[in-house]
């Protein structure tokens, strides 16, 4: 995409005032939105880059790649849409003010013009971006943005899936401002096994792309993506405190009758304990990732370590090593996992699957959470909780309770009733 934007933006600027086109291509809303999308999916500040943000290593993207494209957008739109320009200028500065659209190759489109199209005098204002769905490309989940303890997940799915890995439906995840589940960067068309996704053997070819079918944001954000019988649901539960419980519940269902492999890749230097549940994977920086497996096959959880070398890197090395948690999914056997980031000095919370197997109780010094995911609506009654629906959360804190229903359903808890009639 950065290579494409280098050509498209330079042609759009060159056409201005020539009389060769009746369209102001530099100000085209699709170009504006494409540049905004690249800014909006940028990672949290990376400790390996002195706190700079960078492009997520999705598709065919190199490691730690910073881009000047938000800076170009700020310069182009500085008069037409000053608020947009200020937000783009802020993201360019957050990338460390690079002078080229990317790394790992030539970007000749505006070579020699950086001093014109990058203007450090444009004011910079941090945007108030939240979780967002990009229908052709995927979605990003965010909490406590901008800040140094952001929680972030990028999910890739949609028809804009060319020059990519076999990675549709996969994600990368940051917790408490630290990278916890990463990609390996561009080294060729990487197989499904190199990504945090379900590999059900379905051919990934142009025209076979999946879609995000449901998306909602609020106190708890929700997504359901579908591809050839594989359904991935994600519930993002957010706390008011960036150091509090901000975590993801992920449920995968394969309805095609195919056997599948379930994987999550974790950026850790220690082999995860596959006999434990929850598994606490030691992160490389200030946070760990706790993985609680709430639903899955009776077979043994396994782990694998792999190292890949990308073609270019903004980091000190081009190599990335990760360790997996993986399961063999028999046909029609869902997997539900809680991915729960914690700081190094924070204890692991307690997880209990309540009767019926769909509702998970999570307790700690913060209070108690009840979270649930199901592909179809179901009913549950217990512990003072009455619910019907397929996705939601109850967060019990000192002196207050927050109930979230991102999809149709009804919850009664401690005498309070919340109903979502529209989804």
Question: How would you sum up this structure, described in words?
Answer:
The protein is mainly beta. Helix content is 12%, strand content 36%. The chain has five helices and 23 strands. Strands 7-8-9-10-16-13-12 form a seven-stranded antiparallel beta sheet, with no helix packed on it. Strands 17, 18, 19, 20, 21, 22 and 23 form a seven-stranded antiparallel beta sheet that branches. The longest helix is centred in the first third of the chain and has 13 residues, at 2-14. It is globular and about 70 Å long. The two termini are 34 Å apart. The model has no long low-confidence stretch (mean pLDDT 96).
Secondary structure layout plus pairing:
Layout: H1 2-14, H2 29-40, H3 69-76, H4 82-94, H5 114-117, E1 132-134, E2 138-143, E3 151-156, E4 171-175, E5 178-181, E6 198-199, E7 211-216, E8 220-227, E9 230-237, E10 247-254, E11 260-266, E12 279-281, E13 287-295, E14 305-309, E15 319-329, E16 335-343, E17 350-353, E18 359-364, E19 367-382, E20 385-397, E21 400-404, E22 409-413, E23 416-420
Antiparallel strand pairs: 1-2, 2-3, 3-4, 4-5, 6-11, 7-8, 8-9, 9-10, 10-16, 11-15, 12-13, 13-16, 14-15, 17-18, 18-19, 19-20, 20-21, 20-22, 22-23
**SS field, number of helical segments:** 5
Low-confidence stretches: none
What is the total tally of β strands?
Answer: 23
What is the molecular shape? globular
Span of the ends, CA to CA:
34 Å
| H and E order | HHHHHEEEEEEEEEEEEEEEEEEEEEEE
- From the helix content, strand content and strand pairing, which structural class follows? mainly beta
What can be said about the biggest beta sheet?
Answer: 7 strands, antiparallel
Order of adjacent strands in the largest pleated sheet? 7-8-9-10-16-13-12
- Strand % is 35-45%
Rg, alpha carbons: 22 Å
Helical residue percent band = 10-25%
Give the overall pLDDT as a whole number: 96
